[in-house]
Structures are given as structure tokens and as C-alpha cells.
Specification:
The structure holds 2 protein chains of 2 kinds. Chain A is mainly alpha-helical. Chain A contains 14 helices and 4 strands. Chain A has 2 domains: 156 residues, Cytochrome Bc1 Complex, Chain D, domain 2; 146 residues, Orthogonal Bundle (Cytochrome Bc1 Complex, Chain D, domain 2), CATH 1.10.760. In chain A, the strands form 2 sheets. Chain A has a two-stranded antiparallel sheet. Chain A has a two-stranded antiparallel ribbon with strand order 3-4. In chain A, a hairpin with a 5-residue loop joins strand 1 and strand 2. By secondary structure, chain B is mostly beta strands. The N and C termini of chain B lie far apart (63 Å). Chain B is built from 3 helices and 17 strands. In chain B, a hairpin with a 2-residue loop joins strand 1 and strand 2. The chains are: A mainly alpha, B mainly beta. Chains A and B meet through helix 1 of A and helix 1, strand 10 and strand 11 of B.
């Protein structure tokens, strides 16, 4: 008996040590909505290799859940969400954001030269950026980082806000959020999906945007040949390896200061640089338009190079259609101005002056960043049936 | 009784718990604690840095501007007047500074610091070979400082970016300090690398005596004089060295030598 008591004490002490480990950060409450549909969302965890960032850009009021992502995927691919009646003018996110192009439109997609044009006939101010790995992007969305938490315009701060912007913009869906909401409200099968995802069948556009943002945050690219190389599962060819060296050396092609590499597997800092494309800057949507800092004239976000094989056209204005043209630009085509980033340290030589072989090697390395899993993963594909 | 008695394990455990209790109080001087915080400022010869503006002239006569400075300091040591050394527990043994990120300009160290008089402050500029491991920092902004494995791995100790004016032409410079390389026959190519060189160095802040008071935070301002990177002991002439140092160990060594005296104490507030 005495011995049993001592054990009890010991295990009591031991269990005290483990108590704090059981505390939940954000308990998702379970609610019985109407005796038939239970709201008990399942937390969703992003899966990525160990060398990816651990901090993610997920708002506290829109945590990732299996049910929220499933609903978001449905809406992402449902053309009725544009709120239009005429079937041939209905649009959804996936009308332009194509999985086979890393969720850009691509050169051979629906638009000539990859320049998106909205249903109203208006071209988008810039070409597209991929909807991939946004869960790790913290420096603002769009080419100039306009959509950011500190934006004085409170309605343009979140990924969720880009959903309504896409619905209303004349160069995109050119609809309105009331029509979009009504279209989804009028489809009875959606109500239980909202209940499962958000605990309410009262469908609002904000909840639609939240669900779509959850789906987009779940789109992850981390299984390219280069990832397998980092994980020791494959080796690079001699040409790819030479290209890798060029990519990450200052006296080589010096790509890595802005575009990452093995130490920054996102393949971008997502910071803003004037990379020496022009001498005159009058785009009302460059980084200067956001910061007002004259040093930011002609600066744009460095896009991730993951899947760059599929994300042409390149640069904010889509001026290059092939990776070869982009490599030629960084090799010989740089032009100086007072606004060029100091990281473009070969600006006065016009570029890195790569040989034909070096260019081929660099391209071979860039092609190792293509992730076929991203392009075919059924979790990111269109649902077969809709509500 | 040679048989193993599991009962002994919890007994020993409990005994250990109580072993610290003293029967008769020993009179000792109580150790009080306070805290320390650091504020970082970036000057050029006594004036706050104005970025992206061609305002400065270095000792070699080069006109230059500074875009931004990013760097690590690590292994801060507080030297107590009784000879003891106080350091901070990981992860507080590394701090990242970025002139573009205001939240990095203030570093309130969570560690409790024994109260008393201290004679000086020293730290490592950059990261020593134990700390400077690739993928030690997985998140930006620190991860953006990564240094390619081919060139020695780990992280940039510093990126000091700007431009200098050479006969009316703007040239970019990047003081990208980190692990250096030695190249066979001076062929700057990763296949020619014969070895790596640690370039981190110790900074002892001049006139850095201070006091930690019981339950109070001592605020110490650390000032980097950017011009000091270009002089003492070596006059740095951009027209001779060019703007890149990352694959030039002689240049990195020259910069590292100049770095020993770039930091001073601004104010100490109690």
C-alpha cells in the first residue's frame, strides 16, 4: 500500500510535467448546427520538407481546415461563382489560374502571349504571378506588394481581399460580390459545405473569400528534382550542377541574392528590386507607388523561380516569353539607371556575360525547379462534381 | 538484495527534489537581477544614415551612398568587474539587424542579468564556426542571409549594399562578408577552392562600462559608423577593390580588419 502511494505521487509529479504540452493553441469548437450537420472542422497541416520555413502567413481568423480547403477548392473551380447568368461568360479563379502552369495562365493558355484580359476586354496591368507557396509569402501580394497588412486601405490587406478584387476588377471577372454570393446561395448543395467549414449556413462573400484563400494557401510546391537532390534522393547532371554553381555564386550568374537557393528554398526573397530592365519608369503600379520612396522606381517583387519553366511570360510586363530570353537579359541586356538595385553588381558591364554553355547549364538548373506533383496533384485539381 | 528495485527510482527522484533545502540558513549576499536591452543606430561620421542618397565621401575620396545594412551579432559577453563573464542563452545568443526592418533595431534580451558593475561589452561580429551552420535559420529575414554551400555555407555575416561614384558613373557595391575561400592559382571558380577561411571577429565596445540595477533594464545604444568600414587600419578605395568581396578573401579580410572599430556606445540609460 505504501509502495503504491509512492508510485502515485511519482506519477502525479511526472504527469504535471506533461500537462502544459497538452494545451491547445486554438481549439476549434464543435457545434451541433441543426441536429443533422455537425461543425467540427479538422485542422489542416501544411506538409513540406524540413528545410522550408516554419513560419506561415495564415491569419488567426482563418485557420486552415480540411473542410475549409475542400470548400475553397470547389469555389475556385466553380464558374457559377462569378455571378453571371450567361454560361459562356461565367468565370472562376481557375479560368485563368491553371494548375498545369503553376496556377498562372501560361503562354499556351487562354490568352495571347500570356497577357490576361478580363471579361470586360481590359488587360491586367501586369502579367500573372503563380498561386504557389503563398503560405510562406510575408512581404505583400502582387508585383508591388500592395496587398499587405499595413496598407492604409483596410480592404486591401489580405489574400482574402484579392478574391473580391478578382471578382470585381474590370480586367478580371468584372462582376460584383453580391451577385457572386447570390449565385452560391442559390445552389442548395453549398450550404452544408459552409456549415462544415465555418459553422454557419449563412453564406457571405467574406466566407467565400476565406474558403478560397484557404485553398490557395494549401497549394504547395516542394517536390521538384532540386528538392529530391536536397533530400539526397537524386543527383544533378553535370550540366544542372554547373548551372547550380552559376546560380549561387556572386562571380557566376549571381541569381541567389534575390532568388534564393538551397538556403532559401522558396527561390525568392519576395523583396522588391529594380533589376535593370529600363531607363524610364512611369508604371503607376511599381514599388514606388506603394512606398513613395524614390529609390523604388521601377522595382518589383522578385518572383519565385520554382516551376519557372511553366510560368512565362516573364517580368512584370511579360516582355520575355522564354527562359532563354530571360537568361540573355541577365547576361548581356541590363541597362543602367539611378534606381537599379545595388545587388545588380554587374549592371555597368550589362550583365554576367555567360558563355553559350553557361547559359545552357543555367537553364538546365532552372528546369530542375519544375514540380510535377504540383501540376498533377488531385488535391489541387478541379472537383469532378459540384454541388 | 541484488534484485533491481524500481521503487528506488522515484525515491531518489523525490530525494533530489528536497536535497536543495537547507536546514540552517547560510548568510550569503543575495544575487539580484536586472535586464539589458540594446538599441541599434547606424551613422556616417556622427550623423544618422540617410539611405540611397549620394552624401558621403570615404577616406579614399570615393563618393558613396548606402542602400541598406543587414548583419548578425552573436555571443555577446558582459564583463563584470569581479571578473565573471555573463553571456545569453540560445536563441538569445544571436541577433539579426536590418536597417529596413525597424523591429530589429531594438533588442530586449530576455535573460536575467546579475546586478552589479560591468567593465565592458564584447560580441562576435557575424557567427562563429559552431553557430554558422547552413539551414540554422529557416525563416526570413535571417534565412535571406544564407551563404552558398559551395562558398563555405552558413550565412552572410553582413550585407552592406550601396553605390559609389566613379568619374560620374554609379557603381554598385556589396560588402558581403562571410566565410572566405582560398582558390588555387587565384582562379575564382568553385572547382579551384582549396579551403575555407573564417572571417568573423570579436568587437570590444570602447567605453562600455555600465551597471545593471536590481529589477531594472539598462538600455545601451550601439552605434555602427558605416564610414568606419572604409578606413582604419585600411583605407578602402572602391576604384581599386571594386564592389564585390564575396569571392575575394583578401578583400574580405581587409573589410574584417576595418570592422573591429565600427561600433561604439551611443548612450546608456537607466
Amino acid at each position: 500500500m505504501n509502495r503504491l502511494k509512492k508510485y502515485k505521487l511519482f506519477f502525479l509529479l511526472l504527469s504535471l510535467l506533461f500537462l502544459p504540452a497538452c494545451k491547445k493553441d486554438t481549439p476549434l469548437q464543435e457545434v451541433n448546427i441543426d441536429n443533422t450537420t455537425v461543425y467540427k472542422p479538422t485542422p489542416y497541416k501544411i506538409q513540406a520538407p524540413w528545410y522550408f520555413p516554419t513560419q506561415m502567413n495564415i491569419p488567426a481568423d482563418n485557420p486552415l481546415t480540411v473542410e475549409g480547403i475542400a470548400l475553397g477548392r470547389m469555389l475556385f473551380y466553380d464558374r457559377r461563382m462569378s455571378g453571371r447568368q450567361a454560361v459562356d461568360s461565367q468565370m472562376c479563379c481557375a479560368t485563368c489560374h491553371l494548375q498545369e502552369h503553376a496556377f498562372e495562365c501560361g503562354l499556351d493558355g487562354p490568352f495571347v502571349n500570356g497577357q490576361p484580359i478580363g471579361i470586360g476586354g481590359v488587360p491586367t496591368p501586369h502579367v500573372m504571378l503563380p498561386l504557389v507557396n503563398l503560405v510562406w509569402q510575408n512581404n505583400g501580394y502582387l508585383w508591388n506588394g500592395l496587398i499587405r497588412p499595413e496598407n492604409p486601405v483596410t480592404s486591401k490587406r489580405r489574400l482574402e481581399d484579392l478574391v473580391w478584387m478578382g471578382v470585381v476588377a474590370p480586367h478580371e471577372m468584372y462582376s460584383d460580390t453580391n451577385k457572386a454570393r447570390a449565385a452560391i446561395q442559390n445552389i442548395p448543395g453549398y450550404k452544408p459545405l459552409f456549415v462544415k467549414a465555418f459553422g454557419t449556413g449563412n453564406i457571405t462573400f467574406e466566407l467565400m473569400a476565406k474558403a478560397i484563400a484557404q485553398f490557395i494557401r494549401s497549394i504547395v510546391s516542394c517536390n521538384s528534382k532540386f528538392d529530391k537532390y536536397l533530400l539526397g534522393e537524386t543527383s544533378l547532371t553535370a550540366s544542372e550542377s554547373n548551372g547550380f554553381v552559376l546560380f549561387v555564386t556572386e562571380q557566376g550568374a549571381d541569381c541567389f541574392h534575390c532568388h534564393g537557393g538551397e538556403g532559401n528554398p522558396l527561390f525568392s526573397t519576395y523583396l522588391f528590386y529594380n533589376n535593370g530592365k529600363d531607363t524610364v519608369f512611369n508604371d503607376p503600379r511599381d514599388r514606388y507607388a506603394v512606398t513613395g520612396n524614390p529609390a523604388d522606381h521601377g522595382a518589383y517583387k522578385a518572383p519565385s523561380l520554382r516551376n519557372c519553366e511553366l510560368t512565362g511570360p516573364y517580368m512584370h510586363d511579360g516582355r520575355y516569353t522564354t527562359l532563354d530570353q530571360v537568361i540573355d537579359f541577365y547576361s548581356e541586356g541590363l541597362v543602367g539607371s539611378p534606381y537599379v538595385s545595388p545587388l545588380m553588381h554587374k549592371i555597368n558591364a550589362g550583365g554576367a556575360h555567360l558563355t553559350m554553355q553557361q547559359k545552357a547549364d543555367l537553364k538546365a538548373f532552372l528546369l530542375t525547379l519544375t514540380d510535377n506533383d504540383l501540376l498533377t496533384n488531385p488535391a489541387y485539381s478541379s472537383p469532378v462534381t459540384f454541388p | 538484495m541484488r534484485r533491481f528495485r524500481p521503487i528506488l527510482i522515484p525515491l531518489v527522484f523525490i530525494a533530489l527534489l528536497y536535497s536543495c533545502k537547507r536546514d540552517t540558513p547560510i548568510v550569503i549576499t543575495p544575487v539580484y537581477h536586472g535586464n539589458i536591452s540594446f538599441q541599434f543606430a547606424h551613422d556616417v561620421n556622427g550623423q544618422p544614415l540617410i539611405a540611397d542618397t549620394m552624401l558621403y565621401t570615404n577616406a579614399a575620396g570615393n563618393n558613396y551612398l548606402v542602400t541598406n545594412v543587414q548583419y548578425f551579432i552573436s555571443d555577446v559577453v558582459l564583463h563584470k568587474d569581479d571578473g565573471t563573464l555573463v553571456s545569453f542563452v540560445a536563441p538569445n545568443d544571436v541577433h539579426y539587424l536590418d536597417t529596413d526592418i525597424s523591429s530589429t533595431w531594438n533588442w530586449t534580451v530576455p535573460d536575467s542579468i546579475p546586478a552589479g558593475n560591468y567593465t565592458s561589452i564584447s560580441f562576435t561580429f557575424g557567427l562563429n564556426e559552431i553557430k554558422n551552420q547552413s539551414n540554422a535559420f529557416l525563416n526570413p529575414p535571417e534565412s535571406d542571409m544564407w551563404w552558398p554551400e559551395f562558398l563555405g555555407g552558413g550565412y552572410h555575416y553582413m550585407k552592406l549594399n550601396g553605390k559609389w561614384d566613379s568619374a560620374g558613373s554609379l557603381n554598385p557595391f556589396g560588402f558581403h562578408l562571410g566565410i572566405g575561400q582560398t582558390y588555387a592559382h587565384n582562379v575564382i571558380n568553385v572547382d579551384s577552392i582549396t579551403g575555407f577561411v573564417q572571417n568573423y571577429f570579436t568587437v570590444t565596445l570602447p567605453a562600455s562600462a555600465f551597471t545593471i540595477n536590481k529589477s531594472k533594464t539598462t538600455k545601451v545604444e550601439i552605434v555602427m559608423n558605416i564610414e568606419s568600414w572604409f578606413e582604419t587600419p585600411n583605407v578602402w578605395n572602391f576604384n581599386y577593390w571594386g564592389g564585390s568581396i564575396m569571392q575575394n578573401q583578401t578583400a574580405m579580410h581587409t573589410v574584417a580588419e576595418n570592422g573591429a572599430d565600427v561600433f561604439t556606445i551611443g548612450y546608456i540609460h537607466y
